């Protein structure tokens, strides 16, 4: 497992993050086994959000940590807030809601602090001074050590930086071999057509310029939660390439697909959402695969993309 320096303390975090969005129907014993498996292969980063499973995902991990307090210091735990699910879903970055959310997260996790808190999706009604006040309170009280965002473009992050004193250490962005709008815009600069449209404000380049960690999510998905492309007959050419490279490197096709994400030259992490310990072990091997430039482009093209 390879590691990247993170945050103000430059803590070493695994390139693979265990995403715990889908554990809500698991038992406490099964979640403990999943955590133990992650740690055994060098994964020390764990991602949640207050809305995952309606809070049940955090509660389950909290029960594991209550039973096994020795695990806490081995784990870097991140959660997210800002999405409200009531009669309908909307976003809320108000000071009071951020503070209330974090207190709920800590209670469910049965911990004293979060290693990282992300603002989950952009809030068009965001008042930056409210976020700054909330972050100051959370940081000074020791409840949150580092901060970041999820799915934000450069101008949104610049707006936050106007008032927020703490560094924004992370941006979670969707990326997989079958979901590459950020790269398409870069390849088609100064050209006509839909692929030339810059939809994310060059978020990937901005994160590199500002030494932010990019946490890629849905690394095995195509579209917006449309399904897994590995082994999917809709992506026959892509799977032929993944299978061939899997044989070459002695790993699974999924590991090759994740290695493709990690090959982007930035502070990259891949959030892997499996709840199967065997699949997690396979996914962890992606960190040991260093695809060549030619192989990276071959995968990109096999996914149905093109180059000028």
From TrEMBL:
SUPFAM superfamilies: NAD(P)-linked oxidoreductase (SSF51430). Coiled coil: none annotated. Pfam families: Aldo_ket_red. The keyword Plastid does not apply. Keywords: NADP, Oxidoreductase. It comes from the Bacteria. GO terms for cellular component: cytosol. Residues 15-299 form the NADP-dependent oxidoreductase domain. GO terms for molecular function: oxidoreductase activity. The keyword NADP applies. Belongs to the aldo/keto reductase family. Aldo/keto reductase 2 subfamily. This is Aldo/keto reductase. It comes from Streptococcus oralis.
